[in-house]
Design a protein that fits this description.
Blueprint lengths: L1 H4 L16 H6 L11 H24 L6 H28 L3 H22 L2 H8 L8 H17 L5 H26 L4 E4 L10 H5 L9 E4 L2 H10 L3 H11 L6 H19 L5 H6 L7 H31 L13 H11 L14 H16 L2 E5 L10 E7 L2 E9 L11 E6 L9 E5 L15 H19 L19 H8 L5 H5 L13 H12 L2 H20 L7 H12 L16 H4 L6 H13 L12 H10 L7 H9 L6 H7 L1 H4 L4
Helix pairs in contact: 3-4, 3-5, 4-5, 5-8, 8-12, 14-15, 14-21, 16-17, 17-18, 18-24, 21-22, 24-27, 25-26
The structure holds zinc ion (ZN).
Zinc ion (ZN) binds next to helix 17 and helix 18.
Length: 679
């Protein structure tokens, strides 16, 4: 929904805003779950916010006399802050609340908030009020906010005739509903397969076997949740097992989401057409860094050309590995990819990813990430003890800068039934300098330590944790703006994955890893030699991964670039999988049904690779021998993270790099395993 990505700037103290000290802010801002609301309490909080928003909207319209930033933009921004807060909380509850009935009420609330956002985005009186605000005397951030906000209004159709606006409102309400059901179907769609012969689990690590003991009737259940799914796909020798699990995983919300997705395509196509765009892909690009749909198509082709040579080299190595046990093999199925990748890592790169797991118990990794972020960004973290949350395992931390609290974060890190099954950072409150501390939640599904199990993590889990933490830091450090609407991660939506993907790269540094990765039994730090070997091994497969991502990017673009009546989901997904990746699809998968980003990102899935290009370019600016040294870390914080959404990301990139991003760093990253001598 448009207004969601809007520069939802909220902001400045309407009325007698005094700049409160940071401690005052904190005491006025208890943690979000401190009142332990039940479903009715939650609705009361939400309705209160929506009512407040309405009062500010009325106040914007009622202004008499000349319009100013203070009497109009500030009031508008306050309405946006209220609506954002309502939207963040209901989206969060949908994703994390343990009670299904509560989640249903949250879903209904998300729809209600969506309808309020849509109505605001089509409110012509508010639009005209903002148009009348003189911006020439304002500071650059305020000017940018105003200009971008007006663009978003026009993209919502505010300047169209009454009949068109009424139709757009209906369509946007429908879209909110369709997106919610698409995502809910995936969250609730967990499947499991039954294993009757324990021998089928050959190849899996001992702690996995220990936590998957046969139950009633000797049956072992393997679910499609990540902690079950990923190790099985990576280590299980049995192709039959991987096939069954892969099919279960890729049909989690099938067939129900096929129809929901088709409805979404039709709704979005009609919205784009009403607003004068040829396709949703074009319309959706208009307020992004990339600007047009055609440039998404060009980006896909450029990236494909950059990737192919390395991807082919990697694929031949996988095939050679498979031929050791299957001499006539000419193809590799998608369900075999991770398994053979792991085998090549062991045989050609002398690396067994099991060998690093003992160094990565959850608790150490968590502390290590907090410590690394603290050093890198020159901040600190302080645990808030005894804070109630929607689940007892959720932790609350304060973020400290120069002795002052500058934000609050919540860590909801382990899987439970009904919880959002991927990894995500969700904002909870927009940060407004002197008025409201930014808050955000990390939602992950990482192994949970228990009294007898240290919760050993895979290397990929650690990357995920760093990645999501990158979003969180962006939200907090970028959350010190004058306006809520330009706060945190409110910039062009196709930039938000750059800082997170950049932070992922920190896991390659032997220095960073050695600071926290210690053997959970002996306490010995991870050897430098092992990290270097792991880096070469984990570089192997990157080009194939990028190839697969190009396929997803093309799928997300093509289904939204075409007229819905011309879209055959299964045909497009099969064609692009084959066209852009070397792996053979498994008949019967309908991956689009559980590809959650088709709802939120829609045609903008290119964002991940677009931002990967930027992230690698950013990363090359740091000193590879000591990532934390020199002035680059602080320059990165100041020039990339702190501006939040107060300027175009095209400018942030140029400010930090001294030029626009280019593909060289990504190419070096993809082929890193062929650079260094193998051992
Ligand atoms: Zn991300």
């Amino acid at each position: 929904m448009r207004i969601r990505n809007l520069c939802l700037f909220a902001s400045i103290a309407v009325g007698a805003a005094t700049t409160a000290g940071a401690q005052d802010l904190l005491s006025a801002q208890p943690p979000i779950w401190s009142t332990k609301p039940d479903a009715a309490g939650f609705e009361k909080i939400e309705n209160g916010r929506l009512d407040a928003a309405q009062r500010y909207i009325d106040k914007v319209i009622a202004v008499k006399g000349p319009r100013t930033v203070d009497n109009t933009l500030a009031t508008f921004d306050e309405a946006v802050r209220q609506i954002d807060s309502a939207q963040y909380l209901s989206a969060l509850m949908e994703a994390v609340h343990p009670d299904a009935a509560f989640r249903d009420r949250a879903t209904a609330m998300t729809r209600k908030v969506g309808a309020v956002q849509t109505a605001l985005s089509l409110n012509r009186a508010v639009y005209q009020a903002l148009v009348a605000v003189p911006a020439d005397q304002a500071d650059p951030a305020t000017r940018y906010y105003l200009q971008r906000q007006l663009l978003e209004f026009r993209l919502a159709g505010v300047d169209k005739d009454d009949a068109t606006r009424a139709r757009l409102k209906v369509l946007n309400d429908e879209l909110t509903e369709e997106q919610s059901s698409f995502e809910r179907n995936i969250n609730d769609g967990e499947k499991a397969i039954e294993v009757r012969d324990a021998a089928e689990l050959a190849g899996l690590p001992q702690d996995y076997l220990d936590s998957h003991k046969p139950g009633k009737g000797g049956v072992i259940r393997i679910t499609t949740s990540y902690p079950d799914y990923i190790p099985a796909m990576t280590f299980a020798v049995s192709d039959a097992l991987r096939r069954r699990l892969y099919l279960a995983f890729n049909t989690r919300a099938y067939p129900q989401n096929r129809d929901v997705l088709m409805k979404m395509l039709r709704t979005r196509y009609e919205i784009a057409s009403l607003l004068g765009y040829r396709s949703w892909a074009d319309y959706n690009a208009a307020d992004k860094m990339i600007r047009t749909g055609a440039r998404i198509g060009e980006f896909i082709q450029d990236l494909d050309a950059a990737v192919r040579p390395v991807a082919e080299r990697e694929f031949q190595m996988l095939l050679a590995e498979k031929r050791k046990s299957d001499p006539g093999a000419t193809t590799i199925g998608l369900q075999e990819k991770s398994y053979y990748q792991e085998q090549v890592r062991r045989s050609s790169f002398n690396f067994d990813s099991q060998s690093v797991r003992p160094y990565l118990p959850y608790a150490r990794v968590k502390q290590g990430i907090l410590d690394t972020a603290a050093t890198l960004f020159h901040i600190g973290f302080r645990r808030e003890e005894g804070v109630p949350a929607w689940d007892p395992l959720v932790e609350t931390w304060l973020v400290i800068d120069g002795g002052k609290v500058i934000g609050r974060i919540y860590l909801d890190m382990h899987p439970r039934p009904g919880k959002y099954s991927h990894a995500e950072m969700m904002p909870v409150l927009d940060g407004i300098r002197g008025r409201q501390l930014p808050e955000g939640v990390l939602i992950c599904n990482l192994p949970q330590p228990t009294a007898t199990d240290p919760g050993l993590m895979d290397y990929g889990d650690v990357e995920t944790f760093f990645h999501e933490f990158g979003h969180l830091m962006h939200g907090i450090l970028g959350g010190q703006q004058a306006w809520a609407g330009i706060s945190g991660i409110s910039m062009e939506a196709d930039f938000v994955e750059a800082p997170s993907q950049m932070l992922e790269e920190w896991t390659q540094s032997p220095q960073v890893l050695a600071s926290f990765a210690r053997d959970y039994q002996s306490g010995k730090p991870i050897p430098v030699e092992l990290v270097l070997r792991m880096n070469r091994a984990s570089a192997f497969g990157r080009a194939n991964m990028v190839g697969q991502q190009i396929g997803f990017t093309a799928e997300s673009y093509e289904i939204y670039a075409a007229k819905p009546e011309d879209v055959n989901l299964d045909a497009i997904f099969e064609r692009d999988t084959v066209k852009y990746g070397p792996f053979t699809p498994l008949p019967g998968t309908h991956m689009y049904a559980s590809f959650g980003h088709l709802a939120g990102y829609s045609s903008a899935y290119y964002t991940y690779m677009w931002d990967k290009v930027i992230a690698e370019d950013f990363y090359e600016q740091f000193d590879p021998k000591n990532l934390l040294a020199g002035d680059t870390p602080m320059r990165y914080r100041r020039e990339v993270l702190e501006p939040g959404g107060s300027m175009s990301a095209n400018d942030l990139v140029k400010n930090f790099l001294g030029r626009p991003q280019s593909m060289g760093a990504l190419q070096r990253w993809m082929g890193a395993e062929f650079d260094a001598p193998r051992r």
